[in-house]
Amino acid sequence: MFNWLKVLILLSIEIISNMIYHLTNSITKSINFKKNTNSNSEFLTVIRKPLTERIVQLDNEAIESIALGNASPNISLLKRYCSF
């Protein structure tokens, strides 16, 4: 009940005054965002790629059958049992 009440109160304040928008806008303007050209952009890819490959895998046969027009109506593009 408390969470719904908080959402209703904050949402109504935001709709009336845009207070949260102005607050976050001033906070983000005060932060100096500079891109570091020497940084390694592959850092998150090393962490993300093995996890997503184990959790989310596409069924190539399903994609192929959809492309050929031979797909059943209840076909899924995701493999049912991944290796995680």
UniProtKB/TrEMBL annotation:
<comment type="similarity">
    <text>Belongs to the SLC34A transporter family.</text>
</comment>
<keyword id="KW-1133">Transmembrane helix</keyword>
<dbReference type="GO" id="GO:0005436">
    <property type="term" value="F:sodium:phosphate symporter activity"/>
</dbReference>
<keyword id="KW-0812">Transmembrane</keyword>
<keyword id="KW-1003">Cell membrane</keyword>
<dbReference type="InterPro" id="IPR003841">
    <property type="entry name" value="Na/Pi_transpt"/>
</dbReference>
<dbReference type="GO" id="GO:0016324">
    <property type="term" value="C:apical plasma membrane"/>
</dbReference>
<keyword id="KW-0472">Membrane</keyword>
<protein>
    <submittedName>
        <fullName>Uncharacterized protein</fullName>
    </submittedName>
</protein>
<feature type="signal peptide">
    <location>
        <begin position="1"/>
        <end position="19"/>
    </location>
</feature>
<dbReference type="GO" id="GO:0044341">
    <property type="term" value="P:sodium-dependent phosphate transport"/>
</dbReference>
<keyword id="KW-0732">Signal</keyword>
